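hey
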């Protein structure tokens, strides 16, 4: 298991932005952290009131955004315009190319959101957009937020990957089985968990390979976490 501590992540600080980079991104480069399998970017961004990312281009990437606090206003060259709030999932397939902006529309409240980039299974995909309410958890305690087939109300990404979320009660456990040759990236949003004998706190993450399943247990404050199941 490869552990990535939150305090070791790259940092970008601007007047309007505090961004933590799990993997190399922008001006932050670490050859040891270029991604994990098809997961290329996982940024935890806090945007000041009225601030944001002006219009900019993307190509050949599946981009998923999750708002954790506040609101995020999205506009793109496909004509989409929306506000994303906590409890919603946004998927943008950049494909052959598009332009978009992401702004904090509030005049007095910060916005915190995760931006996730997953490499597509093939180049030349037609750009696309999808936004939905985050599905509830299944019988196994996991909510599937993104998948290649839109299962369970998840957004549909052009890659054989799953993005799942679990909110665990104090001392609660969760198990996610892994198919042959697959790996998992676990990213902790809040609380604490024990995973393969290691304790992870907010912002910490770990990559798991060559295991039949991911098994984790929440600490006394519970836990909120993401799991990526990747080729």
């Amino acid at each position: 298991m490869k552990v990535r501590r939150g305090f070791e992540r790259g940092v970008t600080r601007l007047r309007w932005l505090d961004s933590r980079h799990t993997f190399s991104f922008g001006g932050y480069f670490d050859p040891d952290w270029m991604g994990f399998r098809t997961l290329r970017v996982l940024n935890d961004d806090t945007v000041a009131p009225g601030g944001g990312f002006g219009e900019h281009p993307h190509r050949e990437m599946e981009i998923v955004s999750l708002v954790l606090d506040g609101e995020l206003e999205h506009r793109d060259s496909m004509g989409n315009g929306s506000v994303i709030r906590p409890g919603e999932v946004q998927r943008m397939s950049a494909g052959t190319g598009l332009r978009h902006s992401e702004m904090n529309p509030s005049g007095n409240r910060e916005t915190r959101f995760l931006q996730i980039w997953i490499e597509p299974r093939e180049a030349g995909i037609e750009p696309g957009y999808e936004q939905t309410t985050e599905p509830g958890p299944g019988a196994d305690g996991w909510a599937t937020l993104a998948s290649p087939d839109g299962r369970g109300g998840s957004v549909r990404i052009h890659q054989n990957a799953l993005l799942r979320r679990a909110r665990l009660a104090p001392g609660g456990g969760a198990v996610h089985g892994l198919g042959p040759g697959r790996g998992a990236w676990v990213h902790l949003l809040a609380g604490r968990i024990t995973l393969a004998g290691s304790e992870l706190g907010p912002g910490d993450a770990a990559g798991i390979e060559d295991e039949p399943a991911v098994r984790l247990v929440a600490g006394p404050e519970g836990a909120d976490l993401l799991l990526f199941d990747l080729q």
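The chain has a mean pLDDT of 98. Residues 143-230 form a domain with the Jelly Rolls fold (CATH 2.60.120.10).
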